[in-house]
Amino acid sequence: SAQTTFANLRKDFPILQRIVRDNKTLVYLDNASTTQKPNQVIDAITDYYRNHNANIHRAVYALAEEATELYESTRDKIANFIHISNREEIIFVRGTTEAINLVAYAWGRNHIQKDDIIVTTEYEHHSNIVPWQLLTQEKGAKLVYIGMDDNGELILDDLDKYLATGKVKLVTFSLMSNVLGTITDAEKIISKCKEHGVLTLVDGAQAVPHMPVNIEKLGCDFFAFSGHKMLGPTGIGVLWVRKSVLETMNPFHGGGDMIREVHKYETTWNDLPYKFEAGTPNIADVIGLGTAIDYLTKLGMENIREHEIELTKYAIEKLSQVKGLTIYGTKDISKRGGVISFNFSDVHPHDVAQIIDEEGIAVRSGHHCAQVLMERLNVAATSRASFYIYNTKEEVDSLITALTKVARIFKL
Ligand code: PMP
After folding, report:
1. Which of 166, 208, 275, 306 is the most exposed place for a label (fewest CB within 10 A)?
2. Nearest to residue 406, comparing CAs of 368, 369, 364, 351?
3. Cβ atoms of residues 258 and 274 within 8 Å
4. Which residue CA neighbors atom 4 of ligand 1 most closely?
5. Does residue 100's CB lie within 6 angstroms of at least one atom of ligand 1?
6. What is d(CA 324, CA 347) in angstroms, rounded to the nearest whole number?
7. How many Cβ atoms sit within 10 Å of the Cβ of residue 362?
8. Is the CB of 226 within 6 Å of ligand 1?
9. SS3 track for 307-362
10. Cα 361 to averaged position of ligand 1 atoms, centre (Å)
11. Biological process GO annotation list (predicted)?
12. Strand 27-28 relative to strand 361-362, pairing
């Protein structure tokens, strides 16, 4: 059954055997920041360096062919994984941050003009706010926010209001909030935008690792995600752009591999997607990401979502019983993922994190790169527990037990 599959996979993750602090077994609950890596991914990366290392696309010798084949096969795996039919639309980048900056630069620079409007939301990660501030400030354009209700859901009336101005050029939002776990009603937003001929960018950093995502069905124009949040290595991510839009974009970086011909004063561009992949790419980590996708595909994204729903339901139930503890966002499990932000009475989240760290429990505390959202929630910071495929109900119990220690210390 799916249950046993999930129980057995912990052995694939060497780090989960780690002893930390005072002889405590690691309980890793910071998966919204980054996930741990299975042996399969670690081995794929070292196998590349041990046996296939060469630069890709250029040379004709055997190793270069092998490296190119390994690198390019990941592009096909991604196409299958996020359901798109055209591999030319997939651009390898460093992560979600670079993906969004690429769009702001290579699309935004020649599509955004004075008085245009870009719409984002109150629960975005800084990487889906700051690039748009830079662009709108440079162009004399305007950045506006879809508000969030007290349940942690977006107020779509705001979007209607903005769209009615006829000035909106782009609507950008995360498919899942990295603080509240809210799953955005993306299909509704995108269909509204389409009615007005407005492009949409989806930040999939928190969604792609945790639930099935079908870009063809979503119908957005830009989609970004990071490999390290889905068992893959750091330093590799994906930007997908609809071909008709990609064809209107200028290059991001200039250099090798992105050109067809370079003359003293002019250059012609390589085919898609290579026009947007200048220089020697992160070959090893692309290969590692391909292996991570194999691992997730074998488990099944539906099963992963089910596993996390069970854990999250259990955790919310247990946390709700802790006196003085506030959980942010919706408790409706169908509308959220396995990211739980909370505050414990008036104890600072850093103190909470530090005390439970003594028990070996790793949770994040702070603003989670979402200060606009912190302002909206009227808090400086939260504690955040976030789950992945290898987490168990026993680990949730450990978290609850550790929180009773916080209550004892602070006499709550
Ligand atoms: N968007 C969201 C929703 C995220 O959770 C994160 C990572 N915390 C990012 C963007 C940025 O991703 P990266 O740091 O991998 O570029």
Report:
1. 166
2. 351
3. yes
4. 205
5. no
6. 10
7. 16
8. yes
9. HHHHHHHHHHHHHHCCCCEEECCCCCHHHECCEEEEEECCCCHHHHHHHHHCCCEE
10. 22
11. cysteine metabolic process
12. parallel
**Whether the Cβ atoms of residue 103 and residue 201 lie closer than 8 Å to each other:** yes
CA distance linking residue 259 with residue 267, whole number of Å: 7
Q: Confirm whether pTM is higher than 0.95.
A: yes
Sign of CA dihedral 57, 244, 225, 306: negative
Tokens of 383: 């504690």
User: Considering 26, 369, 379, 407, which one is annotated as catalytic?
Assistant: 369
Report pLDDT digits (tens) over 68-121: 999 999 999 999 999 999 999 999 999 999 999 999 999 999 999 999 999 999
127 lines ligand 1 (CB under 6 A): yes
Q: How large is the ipTM?
A: 0.99
Q: Count CB atoms within 10 A of the CB of residue 315.
A: 24
Cα 124 to averaged position of ligand 1 atoms, centre (Å) = 9
Q: What is the pLDDT of residue 183?
A: 98
The structure tokens 């103190």 sit at 351
CA distance 48 to 290: 12
For ligand 1, atom 6: residue with the closest CA? 205
Residue 209: cis peptide before it, omega within 30 degrees of 0: no
Cβ atoms within 10 Å, residue 366:
16
> Is residue 383 within 6 Å of ligand 1 at its C-beta?
no
